[in-house]
Amino acid sequence: MNERWFRPLRHGSPALPWRTLLLAGLALALYLLAGPAPEALVYDRAAIARGEWWRLLSGHWVHADGSHAGWDILGLLCLGLLFESRLDRLLPLALLAGTAAVDLWLLTGSGLARYCGLSGILNALLAAGLAAWWRELRSPVIPLVAAGALAKIIVEIGAGEALFTRTLWPSTPLAHGAGFAAGALLVLIRLWWRKAATGAQTPRTGYRAGPR
Amino acid sequence: MGWIKPSRLSRLLLGLLVLAGHVQAAGLLTPADGSLPPLEIRDHRVEVIIEDSYAITTVEQVFHNPHDCDLEAIYSFPVPAHGAVAEFTLWIDGQPVTGEVLEKAQARTVYEQEKRAGRDAGLAEKDAYRTFDIHVHPVRAGQDTRIRLVYLQPAEVDTGIGRYVYPLEEGGVDERKLAFWTANDKVTGNFSFDFKLRSSYPVEALRLPNQGQARIRQLDAGEWTASLAGGAGAVEEGAAGTSGGAAYTLDQDIVVYWRHAAGLPGSVDLVTHRPAGAKRGTFMLVVTPGEDLQPIREGRDWIFILDVSGSMAGKYATLADGVRRALGRLTPADRFRIILFNDNARELTGGYVPATPEQVGRYADAVGRIQPGGSTNLYAGLKEGLGALEADRTSGLVLVTDGVANVGETGQRKFLELIGRRDVRLFTFIMGNSANRPLLESLTRASHGFAVSISNSDDIVGQLLAATSKVSHEALHGVELDIDGIRTADITPRVIGSLYRGQQLVLLGHYWGDGSADVRLKARISGQPKEYRTRFEFPARSGSNPEIERLWAYATIEDLQAEMADFGEQADLKRAATDLALEYGLVSDYTSMVVVRDEVFRELGIERRNLERRELERAARAARAGQPAQSRRVDTGQPLFNGSRPGFGSGGGALDPWSLLLLLPLAWIGLRARRRETRAR
């Protein structure tokens, strides 16, 4: 086979999404070992109020049924394969931003008693990944994909449920919206940060250049 | 040639008849032998109003006789859960005439007399727990006849999800009807279903599963409407939706769900009716507990007792799907057994099986492969299930049935004795509209379990989720409610029993006097006593909800019937039930509603009490419609519960193939970019 295609996948290569593979393995292991919607790990508002704070994190990595787990883990693998190398240090930030945004929505806006699933975080990853690609590739396909993803989220929020999936626990498209918004916000913050940093350096450069 | 035993013959016939599927829906009945030509349902219009605690359903129909001779119309539809028929109106000479309630035999006699005399008459009868049957005579040759039917029922809200069912799908469990009638369930003209929800609590969503064409609108925080329309007739101005061109078929239940806003507080809501000058008032108290019940974590044993009789044929796919999902909810620490019953009972599992994913998959597949057939020996199924219990483990029995025991032991008392032998909770899933709900609810009550109704049109996942959250949490057992400071009596249900997570407690009763009352709710949670207290006012006068008088009366009649079914029919109880139905104008097992010409009512000396009551209710309904939904909460000063109401969790929705397809163009530009990078190196 073509050596060119396999080279990036060799051990140690930055092109292989190791972090994504690790996380997907974790989600898969949790599903296989703990089963669907494990009582001790799902987001449970009452339990969190009693101090079981780990559920704010663990709830995202457990799933309600096989189909729920399957599609989410497949989604994570696809997004990781596409975006991990380009997101680089932004990857953990995107994951954390997605987690925080969905948790914030769960605690303040949704009022849901129980929740589980990765899809909210995946939407943060999607938004951040699309922005990273746009910076580098400037392909018109990228905003089109972003618009398509956003339109799907908006339609699903309007309908109050996911259009194409039926999982054991009813779907909450607003979690997708929260995740996507968090990813987009993260990119904006990063742009602002870079602009601020670049702006701060400019006068120094000018000063140095001037009298000499 | 050998003789076929009568029981085998009847089973064979039943099986064939179920296959033939004659009466499987609401509709106009025609003799199966073709001795009379069929009539048509020209229009079928349904209007439902739900105002917090109860639902009012109005069904208006037009029957058409395309033949050249006068005919009798017999319209049959499944009994709605706890539905009290409160009005039957027949248009005579273009004018609506409202029916009056008489004892069943007397009503039948009056109807037959009028029928023989060739005069217009109508009769609404209840066929036990199975159907309401409407007789109208004559539907004149080549002409239309219009009728209206109104029934009331408590509105059901569980774990923050309200559920309303307009029952149309007949269960196919009544051998007698199956043998003699076919049902014409086609609406040749217009069909419409208009649903209005007026809740004083905010409602986040409303939906009709399996009704993609429904138009849903939110008018206010707690006010929603939904409408469906269809049929072959032309669209009238103002009618919702568009005509589909094809005849609408009344063979599928219409189910409506609404979801209350999350995080609402536990509450006590009080609806009263007390006309000016009346010493006695009627109240409806709805207690919605706050989240106070902890999850149960230790492994348990589950015994699934599944009805695989012939009458389950149309519902079996729903059952198998439900069982698969229920098994999928078990943890590996749980164990399960599966018992099947039709003519006899047999075990599918051969002992307890650990609920590992492999075993769950294996037995879910095995359940799915079964072909239902035969009769319903419910007693044998229950007996086998109870015999499988092990004393040292916490166990639950899950019974899934359409609930018409027709072979083996069928007496309710025997069932109660059987369930009383073991200390076990029975959780019953009642499939379809024709189940022997009184029997199943009695059994469930006796074991301190709960019963869930399932329609083929239900969101089985949602129903399962609600049931799972109940069995996986502690429950309030031995619930008692004390009201001090105000004299109350005639409270129904007399014994409350257990309240599971998400369940509301609905009490109806009478009160005397007015002013403040101390209310205490006492129960046990995992053996520990628990008490909740509040204080609120009972009003001296209130006239906006007269319907609750009928709701109280019907609930009391159901209590009396349950008592008779448990301990045998007693003349005084039967008399009490009959008198209540007569006083409050309700169609029951002992009373029917008859419509004759006004002059015939006068000739026969039949008082127009129901007409007066109907006018009072209509006026109250019109007055309510002009106002925003009123809050009925009475414990805001001293809340009975600290926590908010339990609600549902959500999966967040998995990504789906379409989301992943969106990524395909990215994969393409990613590959191109990589190729460019490789070339550049």
Description:
The complex is a heterodimer of chains A (212) and B (681). Chain A is mainly alpha-helical. Chain A has a single domain (16-196), classed as Rhomboid-like fold. Helix content of chain A is 70%, strand content 2%. Chain A contains 9 helices and 2 strands. Chain A has helices spanning 3-6, 18-34, 45-49, 55-58, 66-87, 90-110, 119-137, 141-159, 173-209; strands spanning 43-44, 114-115. A two-stranded antiparallel ribbon of chain A has the order 1-2. The radius of gyration of chain A is 20 Å and the shape is globular. The model of chain A is unreliable at 8-12 and 202-212 (pLDDT under 50). Chain B has 681 residues and is α+β, with helices and mostly antiparallel strands. Among the domains of chain B are: 20-260, tricorn interacting facor f3 domain (Immunoglobulin-like); 301-471, Rossmann fold (3-Layer(aba) Sandwich), CATH 3.40.50. Chain B has an 8-stranded mixed sheet with strand order 6-5-10-3-2-15-18-17. In chain B, strands 7-36-8-9-4-1-13 form a 7-stranded antiparallel sheet. In chain B, strands 23, 24, 25, 26, 27, 28 and 29 form a 7-stranded mixed sheet that branches. In chain B, strand 23 (301-307), helix 4 (316-329) and strand 24 form a beta-alpha-beta unit. In chain B, helix 4 (316-329) packs antiparallel against helix 5, helix 4 (316-329) crosses helix 9 (460-471) and helix 10 (547-567) runs antiparallel to helix 11 (571-584). The longest helix of chain B is centred in the C-terminal third of the chain and has 21 residues, at 547-567. Chain B is globular. Chain B starts with 5 loop residues before the first helix and ends with a helix. Mean pLDDT of chain B is 84; it is low at 1-23 and 234-244.
